[in-house]
Specification:
The chain is of the alpha/beta class and about 450 residues long. Helix content is about 45%, strand content about 15%.
């Protein structure tokens, strides 16, 4: 994997770029940043995941073999980090029409992720699967995630309708090793259960059972995922800024934030990496969007992540990026070698001005589109950078996951905020519990019901 930061610098884009003295100023924080990164073993236990899971992975592979041998469908029930990592693994490494190709070509069960509580979306799944022949992986570390638990309750009801009480084999749980409702359910009913390790938050959990069971069911090479992560860990553990791409990413992005660049666009030029951009959006937003600094002062830090897809969004968002305000940095993700090489044939009709495309490849076209867009935004003086993957496989995806996790953690240290909590999310969870009538939240429900009504002058009903 290659990471090129040149187009964030003043030497490339002019007055709106980052200057050498800006780097030197932010780099004064680096000794403390590095010290904190090395010291936070509890909050950053995810850094050990590529190294300490041999027994767990063996158990996961055994369970995946059981699932693929006995079920037609594998469904992940989760939300946020419990789902986005699996989705990124899926599309980043597998056939893009995986569920539509034959089982012989797939090598296992069809794969679905339910990561919302849209009733139409949930019901649509039951229209295309046979629940008797489906294994459901229920993921919530706390066991209190209202969306996942509601999904789980619906699934259990469906299973009981067709299997009576004989549905234990259709359920796998991943939760905290000791606490929460899901752990109690696991103990009572004997469901196969995996554990989210201590110190591994949801958005950093893709390389533990949260994502690895999906990987194993999909026959993704877990050893290769870990190999890529280890390789990146070695690079991102170095203290020297010029040898550590995660530190440089964090430093430049935090410098950009200080310059008013408050939007981070991730724009992969590969359909299979769009879910990686979705995963990154949660990682970056939830980790860095904080009201309070480590010293308790109000700082309101953060940078809004936006996902875009090349070349699709060249025909929608790029107009804004090239000619709009200087408030964005764009991360292009380039793939050197796709799994397919697709030639543009000679057309059976006169294509006139499009005839120059004949005999060339779609691969060259997408590479040219990315280079052209990169050139256009650079010429417009807008910050951008490029991540290049040699190809899309488990090793490269594992490295990309780990790089972005390390960069996010380092950015938290440069910003002097806690990158591992999410109090803003918790406030919404508590309000949801109250509105849904959960016991113990009556005071919050009364507070919500007492909120002053909206000004009718600004409400329109057509």
């Amino acid at each position: 994997m290659k990471i090129d930061f040149n187009n964030m610098l003043q030497t490339s884009i002019g007055e709106h770029g980052i200057r050498e003295q800006d780097i030197q100023k932010m780099a004064q924080k680096l000794p403390q940043v590095h010290k904190n990164m090395c010291a936070k073993k509890d909050a950053m236990a995810w850094r050990s995941l590529p190294y300490n899971q041999a027994e767990i992975v063996a158990d996961i592979k055994k369970e995946a073999d059981r699932i693929n041998a006995n079920f037609d469908n594998f469904v992940v029930l989760g939300i946020g980090g419990s789902a986005l990592g699996s989705k990124a693994l899926f599309t980043g490494t597998k056939h893009l029409k995986y569920n539509e190709i034959s089982r012989e070509k797939r090598g296992g069960a069809r794969f679905y992720v339910v990561d919302n509580v849209d009733p139409d979306g949930i019901n649509a799944l039951f229209d295309v699967i046979d629940v008797k022949k489906t294994c459901f992986h229920v993921i919530t570390k706390s066991g209190n995630t209202v969306e996942t638990m509601s999904q789980f309750m619906i699934v259990l009801s469906k299973l009981e309708e067709v299997l009576g009480e004989d549905f234990k084999d259709n359920i796998v749980l991943t939760t905290d090793k000791e606490k929460g409702i899901l752990k109690k359910i696991s103990n009572q009913y004997g469901f196969k259960t995996f554990t989210v390790p201590d110190g591994v938050g949801g958005r950093f959990s893709v390389l533990c059972p949260v994502g690895l069971l999906s990987a194993a069911v999909l026959n993704i090479d877990i050893d290769a995922l870990f190999a890529g992560a280890k390789e990146m860990d070695e690079a991102c553990t170095r203290e020297d800024l010029w040898e550590n791409p995660a530190y440089m990413y964090a430093l430049l992005y935090c410098t950009a934030m200080d310059m008013g660049v408050n939007i981070s666009v991730m724009m992969p030029y590969a359909d299979g990496l769009l879910n990686m951009a979705e995963w990154y959006a949660q990682l970056w937003a939830e980790s860095l969007g904080k009201r309070y600094g480590n010293d308790g002062s109000v700082v309101n830090k953060g940078q809004t992540p936006v996902r875009a897809l090349g070349v699709t969004d060249q025909h929608s968002q790029i107009q804004l990026y090239t000619e709009g305000p200087f408030d964005k940095v764009i991360s292009f993700i380039d793939v050197e070698k796709f799994n397919t090489e697709l030639k543009i044939p000679d057309a059976p009709i006169d294509m006139m001005d499009a005839a120059y495309l004949q005999g060339q490849t779609i691969n060259k076209l997408i590479a040219s589109e990315m280079r052209a867009t990169e050139y256009a935004v650079t010429q417009a003086g807008k910050m951008n950078m490029r991540i290049t993957l040699p190809e899309m496989n488990a090793r490269e995806i594992g490295a990309l996951f780990f790089f972005l996790e390390m960069a996010t953690a380092a950015a938290g240290e440069f910003l002097e905020i806690d990158a591992f909590d999410q109090p803003g999310v918790e406030a919404g969870k508590i309000a949801t519990f109250a509105l849904m009538g959960r016991e113990g939240y009556e005071e919050k429900a009364a507070e919500l019901n007492a909120v002053q009504g909206k000004d009718g002058k600004f409400v329109y009903q057509v």
